[in-house]
Input
Amino acid sequence: MLILLLQVKNFPEFQVLKFKRVGATAVKIGNHLYVAGGGDKPYDSSCKTSTEMLDLQKCEEWVGVSDMAEPRKHFSSAVFKGFDLISYT
Output
């Protein structure tokens, strides 16, 4: 996964996610990037409940955080300013 950090205008190398994901969603809260859900292949019915987080200041490794209540794939997410939560639709 490549992430463009606009402040420094470069492409740092990041650790790969712990789980391969297709159709996942991603959001950034502060200095943390969260990737949730998805599946193993684009056109199968597999869905994941897992969520991983990367600290963008350290960029050392993806860490598993709380799973979603239901598996999801090809969905959206939003962060509400002032709240420490991610809303999935």
About this structure: The chain has a mean pLDDT of 81.
